[in-house]
Amino acid sequence: MGAAVDLLSDEWPACIVPSGPVPRELANSVRARMGAVPGWLPRVAPCPWLVDTMVTLIGKPVAALPPDLVDRIDLVVSQDNSCRYCYGVQRAVLRIRGYTDADIERLVRDAQTGDGVPAERAAIDFARRLSRADPRPGPAEFERLLASGLERLAAIEVACAAATGNFANRVATLLALPTESLEKFVRHPLFRVIRPLMSWRMRPRLRPREPLPDPNTGFGARVVAALDGSPAAGVLRRTIDAALGSPILPARTKVLVIAVVARALGCREGERDTRTLLAREGFAAADMDQILDTLASPKLDAREARLVPFARETVRYQPATIQLRMRDVCRDLGPAETLEVAGILALANAICRLSVVLDAC
Amino acid sequence: MLTAAVAVLAACIVFFLERRHGRVVGRLEARLEAASRSLEGLQHAFTRFAPATVVDDIIALGVSTRSEKKDVTVLFADLKGFTPLAEQLDPEVLVRVLNGYFERMSAVIRAEQGHVAKFIGDGLLALFGAVSTNPWQARDAVRAALEMRAALVEYNAGLVAEGLPSLALGIGIHRGPVIAGVIGSRELIEYGVIGSTVNLAARVEELTRVHGVDLLVTEPVRTALDGRFRVRAMPAVPVKGVSTPVATFAIERFEDGTA
User: Are residues A192 and A225 in the same domain?
Assistant: First the structure.
């Protein structure tokens, strides 16, 4: 939370996961979807669902919210979360779109001072509130967003954009992803020549409206249903199913950390869903009460006993502190497990913020 | 020929003025950018001491009139027997000892999700759940208090090694509703909390002398603690400003060994 202090010059520690070989098939598939292989792929490759989610979100699955507003929300949210990686990448993306450094500074300033077009100002304000979640915005704030002139689906996609920004910020910050070469490239003399081509290749496009994914059951089903019409609904359903179905960490461990994030954010929907899932894993209501009230239980294994109290720290944090804690908590985990820890915590933070759309629907 | 020369001269002047204007605008933009960064820096720093919404209000409006009722856990800590100690010590040494103590206590409180709202002489007031909502605020406050106890033992070892007297701490913790907001005058304002919850935390700290312990909590705090916290019930005693005797609980240790 809080604005970034000259983020681009802030210290950012070494990445917590090593760079490794990328299977050719995966590299080709990512290149086909993004037009290039991002610098993070060799580090994130051991966790396939995380790769797929990051690639999908970079494609901005929106049907009603103007994509340039999604870019601005990404910039403001990453600044608010002090995410050095995302802030740098988003500035580079805006430079490719044709913004000058002065334009970008103006965007940042307008977000701080509340200047700008009313609908955009309302969207950015809502996105910041959702990102900070202190407390999460309620129906009144959502009504104000609608009153500013945004149509309902666009307003819901503001929440999606803020939530996905929070997802990306947490993945990048928890893992301390290194700076992308894209940032350096926009300073290269050749950039001006190539920029129009890059801008055309990366041009943002609204997607067609999509029906709800079928089936839509399990964790987060009501939140997914609230996104009806947006391509984000299908993305969220696939992401949740892939994350919980991934064999890297046990499903119960992942659901436990989601439950803690839900409690920290006051997300009743998330807490209810996780209790249902954990009941099937043998956690009685009293066990869950104990875990969520005290962040400890004899029923937790050693890894869970570390991850459960850590999960709450990922809701609001200072990057340097959380990166040190992440390194400590994941000290004896392999790269794939570490990636999945970061991914699931990021996903939990995104979904439990996004669930505010339930109040609005 | 003359017309051409005048035209060239005029073009040069226009070009020169344009460049100069561009440089001036560039300098102004750079200053604006620096001011913007400075503003961001301040905002970033202040979100550690007040909720982000309050900081936003102050930046946008110059003032925050936002006040709200919140459930907060208040930790009040005081050094026992510090006044006679202060009279014995050289002023420079006294300030160094006190600053070292506050530094250590503040670090511990911050690490447990709390924030120091105020230093009052040799006492301090810390809040949990005031700046950000925190469902584990009472547990965090007690863990912070146990860490403060441990940090003081370590600090005292250093003081004794220097030939200085050791410090003794009393801590009272209470949880309840407060009014939180920006309070003060034009000259001095702060984000703070007011209400009987704060007063009772201070009274509970005073009870540490009555019961001969260093860390006491009230019933609303005790109910939020799990079995790993070793707690001993103290007899209820009358407290100024409260109609019925106040029951308190001494926290002895945390089962993981923090004591």
Answer: no
